[in-house]
Amino acid sequence: MKDTEFSRIAKALADPRRFEILKVIIDAGEISCGEVADRFPVSQSTISHHLRLLTEAGLVRVRREGQFGYFSPRQATFEKYLEALSSRLLEEVLI
What we know:
single chain; alpha+beta; Arc Repressor Mutant, subunit A
């Protein structure tokens, strides 16, 4: 995994609200932006911003149906990130 991709994912996960949104998406399997927004006391535009960053980081994918977007987790990205994180931590321990 490239450093830029690793950093983008780490930054996306570092925000507590985005992390909570990601957990909701994982629990649901697939969920619309509106359904995510209903679960948090913030505006729809704020939720859309967080979802865009999660999508750009590759943590979720969006499926469009008309004007609606449905978000689901990208398992492969999680696996690659955890592998890269483990590798980087192990390198630090061995140095």
